[in-house]
Amino acid sequence: MSAAYAKSLYPAENCFMLDVHELEGPDVSFYLASLDAIAVGTAALVCKDGAAAELKAMFVHPDARGSGVAGALLGRVETDARDRGVDEIVLETGTLHTMARQLYRKHGYREIPLFGQYIGEQFSVCMAKNIH
Q: Where is the N-acetyltransferase domain positioned along the sequence (predicted)?
């Protein structure tokens, strides 16, 4: 559902989703949130080096938004990252994801210059949070 949502907002070449194979990678931790045994949210943490990790695949089903699922997912991801010695979590979201950017700001994320594969992308907004 998250891929369909992103593709409804942005051109396909501007959607930076991880595919199933990438989500199964050794450097990826995948998180699933459920309410009443129904999956309502996801997140992934990609740890490629010891100092920083990237938050990917963050999505909460529209019916569960406003219920605290996103904050709980972020809290779990940040705790796990801190336990792994990560100092900073970075992420990319879209210019049209206003609610997502508000959520991240509420939880202490700040906008940063575009990085990595997002450099030069007109629809990308990058954010980061120091967790140590």
A: 1-132
Domain of 109? 2-130
In this structure, the strands spanning 110-112 and 124-130 are: antiparallel
Write the CATH number for 108. 3.40.630.30
Which among 98, 96, 101 is positioned nearest to 128, based on CA atoms? Answer: 101
Please report where in the chains the tokens 């990790």 appear, as a residue: 53
Q: Number of structural domains, the chain?
A: 1
Which H or E run includes 112? strand 110-112
Q: Which residue has the higher pLDDT, 17 or 120?
A: 120
Amino acid identity for residue 9 in this structure = L
In terms of Cβ atoms closer than 10 Å to its own Cβ (0-12, 13-18, 19+), residue 89 is buried
Q: pTM of the full predicted structure?
A: 0.85
